[in-house]
Design brief:
Layout (H helix, E strand, L loop, with lengths): L5 H17 L6 E5 L5 H9 L4 E4 L2 H13 L9 E4 L8 H4 L3 E7 L2 H10 L4 E5 L16 H10 L3 E6 L7 H18 L3 E3 L6 H7 L3 E4 L1 H4 L9
Parallel strand pairs: 1-2, 1-8, 2-3, 3-4, 4-5, 5-6, 6-7
Helix pairs in contact: 1-2, 7-8
The structure holds pyridoxal-5'-phosphate.
């Protein structure tokens, strides 16, 4: 397991904040994505004042959350975990005690599970706005109905989330524009879009929340099997 030095994270965060200032993104929230790294990454993020953490895999999120709890984190610095990966409904129960925001709700069945295990929790709807068939997320034309259905389960639907198209800036820009217009129509304040490679495009399109991993923690170690 690689060791994450909080001083490196602080330096990279400084660079990122300077960058964001320069492009009018100083108001945008940063989710520190610790997937693929050990609990030391989560610890380093918290040391740097980043208290919103993102994870893609249920097991990793639970392990890191429990590690921080065991390390006796003060309540003031307890992080807020966002689940940002492909969500299977059979993982909801184990995640529920730790997850503050479910960013990848893309079907009603998930909402039903979340409402059962974690009533009233904050959710975002993931939308596939890049027209990639293999990608998670509901279709743009399904968003309105899904948001209404989730709301009727008393879930707190706060925003929309999407992932850009890797390596295609202009396609990604129009996808982000599309997400913003859907969120505008539904009057949802949070637009979670933009990662290390495309955060500038996301900010230009109106992102309110970036999910940043490698830009903060360095290259991810080779992926373990899940
Ligand atoms: C991995 C991941 C991120 C962070 O990616 P980086 O390129 O390391 O910033 C953000 N969002 C999602 C959904 C991810 O899977």
């Amino acid at each position: 397991m690689s060791v994450i030095d909080p001083a490196d994270v602080a330096r990279r965060l400084d660079q990122l904040r300077n960058d964001l200032d320069a492009i009018g993104g100083d108001h945008v929230e940063i989710v520190a994505v610790t997937k693929g790294f050990g609990p030391d990454a989560a610890q380093a993020a918290i040391t740097c004042g980043l208290t919103v953490l993102g994870e893609n895999y249920a097991q990793e999120l639970v392990a890191k959350a429990e590690h921080l709890l065991a390390a006796g984190e003060e309540r003031e610095t307890a992080p807020e975990w966002h689940f940002i990966g492909h969500l299977q409904s059979n993982k909801v129960a184990s995640l529920a005690p730790h997850v503050a925001v479910w960013q990848t709700v893309d079907r009603l069945k998930l909402g039903t599970r979340i409402a059962a295990h974690s009533p009233g929790s904050r959710v975002y709807v993931q939308v596939n706005v890049t027209d990639e068939p293999q990608k998670a997320g509901c279709q743009p034309h399904e968003v309105g109905q899904l948001v209404a259905d989730l709301t009727s389960l008393d879930l707190d639907v706060q925003g929309l989330m999407t992932v850009g198209r890797q390596g295609d800036v202009s396609e990604t820009r129009s996808a982000f524009d599309h997400l913003v217009s859907l969120a505008d129509d539904l009057e949802l304040p949070t637009r979670s879009m933009g990662m290390s490679a495309d955060y500038a495009v996301a900010v230009a399109a109106g992102s309110t929340m970036l999910r940043i991993g490698s830009k903060l923690f360095g290259p991810r170690p080779p992926k373990a099997t899940h």
